[in-house]
Design goal:
heterodimer, A: mainly alpha, B: mainly alpha, 2 domains, 4 helices, 84% helix, 0% strand
């Protein structure tokens, strides 16, 4: 690496530190980084003005926008709240049954919804029910936060980092799910079992009969059915994408347009509720990473990984899983995914599927180790505080750390056996 | 910390700094003159060179006095620097009390200062006639800011270590006192 490239590494570090130190909002940090990268890159002859535009990944941006619009329209109809209430009503009111249901419900909600939206939905259900029945809400909320972080690991649209990795790896919706959904589903069971075992003494209480109308809060039943149809169509087209020749981002934006056209909601309201912070962060940070890629720094990082693993796919996979997982404890998993994607692309390995899968698992699983690294855990603590319930931060960190480590070890074993990395 | 505080501190500390530096310089200068008056006179009873020479003894005494005043001046300069750094960093929004976050912010600002200076460099160089001086000004400005930021990081590190040392000392003394108490019983 040329020492004149140091300034580009500094720009990358500045972007991360601006966000990490909360000097600027994450999206603005990324845009500031992109601005500096463009300034130095163009003036320094690293890339041209025209080439700079190619750093913006239009496919990824369209995929993000499409999914966000579909989910926002569906959320407004109340379909997710309805599913949540229906499921809890169905399982009865035993605290242990409710706990297990809520764990699975949280993970399932996170398959489609953003972590924050999923938590808002599940936490409202958890707090209401536990209050009504007189149960301790702490196990419910902390477990919900951990399960939401886990949920969505196995599907392409489960998280922004998944979309970044999936698109760059050239994985279709079905291919992505084929490799990772079995792992995610088994992790749901494993994590719920760990959480149940950990909190079992606190899941006490006499079951009480509860009566509530799940449809009471739904204003427009037609909107719920329309949303169900569009979500169904989205999944069917994603699954059939390979057969009908429709790329993932095209399906997403197509369904988004249909959702907007049929919902009757004011599009300005829908657009204003989209997660623009994430969209601009992805655009800006991707620009920074693409600039850095031009310097050859990531190529060196890639060569370092190759050298460390002596070219073994098994070692690279395990290394990628733990490296991305550990870095995700401290950094937003979107930033980790954006940084590691070019590194994996540059690896001189024939079969990269296990490595891509390891990156997906690492970025998803590392995020809930500590309250500082997980927005949902912070939200869980906030909800408990609002309810006037004290919480031991050490305990939250402990359970987060335990679950993350067990999940990562399990994921490593899964990858080794699923991709037959040991001959 | 405000500009008024700085003014107040400057009024009280600056004369002390000047006075202490002048005295320190005075003793430092005379430490080079007075010992030579004593010539080769040796102290009886002390056999170790050069400690047996009166000139050395005079030089050492005067240097220690000069050092004492220099240290006092240095202490006042540090106190003033603390205020200047606080005002300076406060203007940049770095008023974070938590040590780790403050260090993180300082580190962020260090990166930002370097990058900004590097980004401005080609622009300032291009300015006719004064380009060189502008570039020099930017470099000096960046360097001063870097020194302030690094000083702030060092200060935070010192405070954290001091706190830890204090709590360690308290813990050790509490062990000692509890032992004494148990022995007394």
């Amino acid at each position: 690496m040329d020492s004149s490239y140091l300034i580009y590494v500094l720009v990358y570090l500045l972007t991360i530190f601006l966000a990490l130190s909360e000097t600027l909002p994450v999206s603005v940090s990324a845009l500031v980084g992109a601005l500096f990268m463009a300034w130095f890159g163009i003036n320094g002859g690293l890339f041209t003005y025209e080439e700079a535009f190619s750093f913006i990944d239009l496919k990824l941006t369209i995929l993000l926008l499409g999914i966000m619009i579909v989910v926002e329209v569906a959320s407004r109809s109340g379909i997710f709240r309805l599913i949540s209430l229906y499921t809890t009503k169905l399982v009865g009111n035993s605290p242990r049954k409710l706990f297990i249901t809520l764990c699975f419900l949280s993970a399932a909600a996170s398959l489609f919804l953003s972590d924050i939206a999923a938590f808002l939905m599940v936490s409202a259900t958890a707090v209401t029910i536990s209050k009504f029945l007189g149960y301790d809400p702490r196990p419910f909320l902390i477990s919900a936060a951990l399960m939401i972080n886990l949920g969505g690991t196995g599907v392409l649209i489960g998280s922004v980092s998944n979309m970044i990795i999936g698109l760059n790896a050239g994985m279709s919706f079905t291919e992505f799910a084929e490799y990772l959904l079995p792992c995610e589903l088994s992790l749901w069971v494993l994590t719920t079992a760990i959480l149940y075992f950990y909190f079992r003494d606190r899941l006490q209480g006499t079951p009480r009969e509860i009566q509530y109308d799940v449809w009471a809060s739904i204003e427009d039943r037609g909107a719920v059915f329309r949303s169900a149809l569009i979500l169904g169509a989205l999944i069917i087209f994603f699954v059939m994408g390979d057969t009908i020749g429709a790329p993932t981002e095209a399906v997403a934006i197509g369904c988004a347009v249909i959702a907007l056209a049929t919902s009757g909601y004011d599009p300005r309201d829908v657009f204003s509720r989209l997660d623009w912070e994430t969209i601009f962060f992805v655009i800006g940070f991707l620009f920074v990473v693409r600039g850095l890629e031009r310097t050859g720094v990531l190529q060196e990082f890639s060569s370092w990984i190759m050298g460390l693993a002596s070219g073994s796919v098994l070692i690279i996979t395990v290394l990628m899983l733990f490296l991305s997982g550990i870095v995700s404890i401290f950094l937003a998993n979107i930033a980790v995914a954006l940084t590691f994607v070019p590194t994996v692309k540059l690896l001189d390995v024939a079969n990269k599927k296990p490595i891509w899968s390891a990156l997906v698992l690492g970025t998803n699983l590392g995020g809930a180790t500590m309250p500082v690294s997980s927005v949902v855990l912070v939200m869980a603590l906030g909800v408990l505080k609002q309810e006037g319930i004290s919480i031991d931060l050490g305990e939250v960190t402990r359970i987060g750390f335990i679950t993350s480590m067990i999940q990562m070890v399990y994921a490593a074993i899964y990858l080794i056996f699923y991709f037959r990395l040991v001959i | 910390m405000s500009a008024a505080t700085l003014q107040r501190e400057l009024r009280t500390r600056l004369p002390k700094v000047v006075f202490n530096i002048v005295i320190a310089l005075f003793f430092y200068i005379i430490s080079g003159i007075i010992p030579s008056i004593a010539g080769d006179v040796q102290l009886p009873g002390i056999e170790i060179e050069p400690f047996n020479r009166v000139s050395w003894l005079l030089w050492a005494s005067l240097t220690v006095i000069a050092l004492l005043f220099a240290v006092r001046a240095f202490y006042d300069i540090l106190a003033l620097l603390d205020i200047v750094v606080d005002i300076f960093l406060g203007r940049f929004g770095s008023t974070e009390a938590k040590p780790l976050k403050r260090v993180l912010k300082d580190l962020t600002m260090i990166f930002l200062v370097i990058i900004l200076a590097a980004a401005i460099a080609p622009v300032t160089s291009g300015v006719p006639v004064v380009g060189y001086y502008l570039r020099l000004l930017v470099s000096v400005g960046a360097l001063v800011m870097l020194i302030f930021l690094i000083y702030d990081m060092g200060r935070i590190f010192y405070r954290v270590v001091e706190e830890k040392t204090d709590s360690l000392a308290e813990w050790i003394s509490s062990i000692g006192s509890s032992k004494e108490r148990s022995e007394g019983e």
